[in-house]
Design a protein that fits this description.
The complex is a heterodimer of chains A (558) and B (102). Chain A has 19 helices and 21 strands. Chain A has 558 residues and is α+β, with helices and mostly antiparallel strands. The longest helix of chain A has 22 residues, at 6-27. Chain A starts with 5 loop residues before the first helix and ends with a helix. Chain B is an alpha+beta fold and 102 residues long. The chains are: A alpha+beta (558), B alpha+beta (102). Chain A binds chain B through residues 26-29, 33, 47-52, 80, 95-99, 349, 420-422, 426-427, 429, 431-432, 435, 478, 481-483, and chain B through 7, 9-14, 50, 52-53, 56-57, 73-76, 79-80, 83-87, 90-91.
Chain lengths: 558, 102
């Protein structure tokens, strides 16, 4: 893991002191709310429906046990005993008092964490594949590049007041688990023909009210040019991105309105100019390797005994067997695996974890997973390196804290934004819908019969619940004072990213679970065979059979 | 009919303007404006609350009277008055019981 150096410690400490002063002046009436609001937002402090909300950055979703214990401590001491892991690999606390936030930030700084740039029109937390450094299909660990981008973008004087917020995601694998094509910049770490590392560069992806799939503007960018090229993109966006209309201010709109070819030309011209001007930020190889060293894989001893022990253990425990099938993933070392700790218990709130659960997971990571935890953008936690021989012990410990649900990637592994239960922007509830769908499909046998299926739910068009890229997406809107839910089908956020299509009129809160069941049953009735998953079947069949099943004669008339 | 709501500066707690000009923690104590004069009066008190750094984000909420109680028309405000529908153990519904019902 990355460790703060003296500069990092000093920088974060200064920011904590600065915010403490700002908060004290606000509470003393020396600052008005208009003056204070942009300052608190720069430190991740929002005002939501019931209280303030503090969003804490978890760079590229990587946490140590010590850091997770600190989050548990904050949940217990300053909040209401739980935290909410988000689709941007961050954590949010829903109930902190403003007067306590400076002290929370001080405690966070003690474990090398902060809330800087988790809001505002700046470069936000850089996200990455949650299996980084462990995945068998990985070309290179994406986190060193995410860390380089984090350091470069932190309070970057030129890019702290962009037209709108800016999100960067990095994957190091062919199979994209970081949803890079739905980000403002997506980076795919790859090698060229000579085996040199670099990136395919995607620009202009995003969700919200105008969903767009990012365009690839560079097939291969040499590793050393990462910051120069990113600077070129940011400069083009900062200069030409719209500031007159916040709904048209993201770079996706600039890419769309300018055209990919012309935008690429502008970026390449800026890139060339930077290289000539002496402003080039060429990354020295030694610096890259130094950052890389922070992310060196743990020393994984041979643990071949796990192959035999797991066979015996899964025979004796059906729950463990199901968990192995769904929540355990291949690791680059054959004696090890990566584990998904599902924060999607049947009928539970997606992404929530109690302080006790966080502490227990921190203990598990320390004991069995080299002190490392990841947050996935799918709102689960990951233990990236677990010996197969230890899987049963990890499973048993998860059973004890109720986090053993074997549903990773299944119909109940639902992404949901906080929705109208917490969020000041939301128009409809999303968590309650997720809970009802989860309960409806909760039977393990039925879930596994349905197979891989990603349901994603947003409570407003800002799409924090990623509904546009759900195989089944659900968007909550407010119509005539009541909640109404639109269904989209066929979305995906992997290497074949697609935006889901609205299937027809919306459904009430009372109807939506039945409607989702109709969609799922239609898939089961029409799939070629069990190996054709929902998305593949939808792409083959199109929307027609689903519309027919949902709307019947109404669909035919349309 | 309208009531005036805000969030308390210190802790962000949702509050409502009461008839005695205090900021009540439950909607049951909200003063109801039934005409423009009352709204103007309440708006002025809200502005005083902002100036005194007691509250932020002051807004009127449309309500209807049901069994003599002011009930917000929008679900958003009903949830705000009670707490998360998915965690009945949290928010005003947990702290104040029936007084938080909207």
């Amino acid at each position: 893991m990355y460790r703060y150096d003296e500069f990092d410690h000093a920088f974060v400490a200064e920011r904590v002191a600065e915010f403490r002063d700002q908060a004290e002046r606000r509470l003393a009436g020396e600052l008005t709310e208009d003056q204070f609001k942009p300052l608190r937002l720069m430190n991740g402090v929002y005002l939501q429906l019931h209280a303030y909300m503090l969003r804490i950055a978890i760079p590229y979703g990587t946490l140590s046990s010590k850091q997770l214990r600190m989050l548990a401590h904050i949940a217990r001491t300053y909040d209401k005993g739980y935290g909410h892991f988000t689709t941007r690999q961050n954590i949010q606390f829903n109930w902190p008092a403003l007067k306590d936030i400076p002290v929370i930030l001080e405690e966070l700084a003690s474990v090398e964490m902060h809330a800087i740039q988790t809001s505002g029109n700046c470069i936000r937390n850089v996200t990455a594949d949650h299996f980084a450094g462990a995945a068998v299909d990985e070309t290179a660990d994406p986190r060193p590049y995410a860390e380089i981008l984090r350091q470069w973008s932190s309070v970057h004087p030129e890019f702290s007041y962009l037209p709108r917020k800016f999100k960067i995601a990095v994957t190091g694998a062919e199979h994209d688990r970081a949803a890079i094509q739905t980000h403002d910049i997506g980076l795919h770490v790859k090698k060229d023909g000579d085996g040199k590392l670099g990136f395919a560069v995607y620009v202009g992806g995003g969700q919200g009210r105008t969903p767009m799939v990012a365009k690839r503007i560079r097939d291969f960018l040499p590793e050393e040019d990462l910051l120069t090229y990113t600077t070129a993109i940011m400069r083009v966006y900062n200069l030409h991105g719209r500031r007159d209309n916040k709904y048209k201010a993201r770079i996706k709109i600039l890419v769309h309105e300018t055209g990919t070819e012309e935008l690429t030309r502008q970026v390449e011209a800026e890139f060339a100019a930077l290289k000539l001007s002496g402003e080039e930020l060429k990354l020295p190889d030694a610096d890259i390797r130094a950052i890389e060293n922070y992310f060196a894989p743990p020393a994984l001893a041979e643990r071949a005994e796990g192959w035999a022990s797991v066979v015996a253990e899964r025979k004796a425990d059906a729950g463990f067997d199901a968990w192995l099938r769904r929540n355990v993933h291949e690791h680059r070392h054959p004696d090890y695996a990566s584990v998904t700790i599902s924060l999607k218990g049947i009928g539970e709130v997606p992404g929530d974890a109690t302080d006790a659960q966080m502490n227990a997971i921190a203990d598990l990571a320390e004991r069995f997973a080299f002190d490392e935890i990841r947050v996935s953008h799918e709102q689960n936690l990951i233990l990236p390196h677990v010996a197969r021989a230890d899987l049963k012990a990890v499973y048993d410990a998860l059973v004890a804290i109720g986090l053993h649900t074997p549903n990773a990637g299944l119909v109940t592994d639902i992404i949901a934004c906080p929705g109208l239960d917490y969020c000041a922007l939301a128009n409809a509830r999303s968590i309650s819908v997720a809970q009802e769908i989860s309960t409806r499909f909760g039977a393990q046998e039925r879930q596994e019969e349905i197979g891989d299926l990603k349901i994603k739910i947003s409570g407003c068009i800002n799409a924090c619940g990623h509904h546009h890229v759900g195989h089944i997406g659900i968007l909550g809107v407010e119509k005539k004072g009541t909640e109404l839910y639109q269904i989209t089908l066929g979305g995906s956020a992997d290497e074949n990213t697609s935006i889901g299509q609205i299937v027809g009129r919306g459904f009430t809160a009372e109807e939506i679970t039945d409607a989702i069941e109709t969609v799922v049953e239609t898939y089961l009735a029409n799939r070629a065979d069990k190996t054709e998953d929902f998305l593949a079947a939808y792409r083959r069949l199109g929307a027609a059979p689903f519309k027919e099943a949902l709307y019947g004669t109404e669909a035919r008339a349309a | 009919m309208k009531i005036l709501t805000a969030n308390r500066l210190m802790d962000g707690e949702a509050v409502w303007l009461a008839a005695d000009h205090s900021w009540a923690e439950t909607i049951a104590h909200a003063d109801v404006a039934t005409n423009a004069d009352a709204e103007a009066r309440m708006e002025a008190i809200g502005a005083q609350g902002i100036a005194a750094n007691l509250v932020v984000d002051v807004n009127f909420v449309d309500v209807e009277l049901i069994d003599g109680k002011a009930v917000p028309i929008r679900l958003r405000e009903r949830i705000r008055a009670a707490g998360p529908t998915i965690r009945r153990d949290l928010g005003k519904q947990a702290a104040h019981g029936a007084e938080s019902a909207a």
